[in-house]
Amino acid sequence: LDLLRIPRGFLDEPAGLLPLGLQKKVEVARALAADPKLLLLDEPAGGLNNEETEALADALIDVSSRPGLTVVLIDHDMELVMEICSRICVLNFGRKIAIGTPEEIRGDPAVIESYLGAPDAA
What is the pTM assigned to this prediction? Predict the structure, then answer.
């Protein structure tokens, strides 16, 4: 509960009745209960508003700092990815186009072209 910043006031509530942001944290907590070496998160912020996404990001930063745990995050929310990840692999139609730190990815020409479009030739 503390690691994922789940308020203790929700301890006895059925997970299905919690707000979506807390439900997502409960899902991560349930996965962590098995003490995994690898945690694969597929679109963990899906359906969350900005405030909920930021709260989840803060919790995932804490989770990813656990010794012996590798977190693999798959998400289209680039703000979230840039905030949480220390290394990023960018795919475009299933093909790897870049790998590096958030700073390297942010300035990578292939990433910019794929996600923002090529600059006009005019």
Answer: 0.80
